[in-house]
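Notebook entry, structure prediction.
Reason for the run: the old model in the group folder had no record of what sequence produced it. Starting over properly, with the input documented here first.
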Amino acid sequence: MAQGASLCGVGLAAALALGATGAAGAQEAAEPEALPSWERAAYKTLSFQALDNLADGALFAVIATATAGTSIVFIAANAATTAMLYYPYEVSWDLLGPPPSESSAETLAVKAVGYQVLTGTRKAALSYLLTGSLLPSVGFAAAAFAMDMTIYAGNDVAWDIFRPRAAPYAAEPVGTTQTGGNRR
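New structure, fully documented this time:
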């Protein structure tokens, strides 16, 4: 099972490396169109959830020494609750956080740690609910924190490369009006 987690990490690193080189060439040809926050967050939720659930499922089975039935219930509950937390967190960050032009490694770290604190609490509670054992549940949440930081940051960076988020609406200069069409 530990090999599954390390393979997931290697796969993520390879995807990011390929994406970075592919994106560099693609940016010379054309800049990718930015997506609205709600749509980008939906796609990010799907990609994050796929990677995160694979890693969490393997880690849960190892740390909690869970049976196959408990692991299946964990994976289903983890997938549902991850989406319920991740999507609103991403939309809120896009709307309330710094604009894309002001994003940096530090803002990514703050964003990732903030999410990990929320999801770590969720994971510890879910694990405890399914196992009834506090120590393995806290151990699972702590181990998942470190592993998920990599997945979260990698997913965020990959989406910034492939489909950046749209800049927030700029204020219109005083004395001008908008004529026709929808603002994007």
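Summary: The helical segments are 2-29, 37-63, 68-96, 105-131, 134-162.
The old model has been moved to the deprecated folder.
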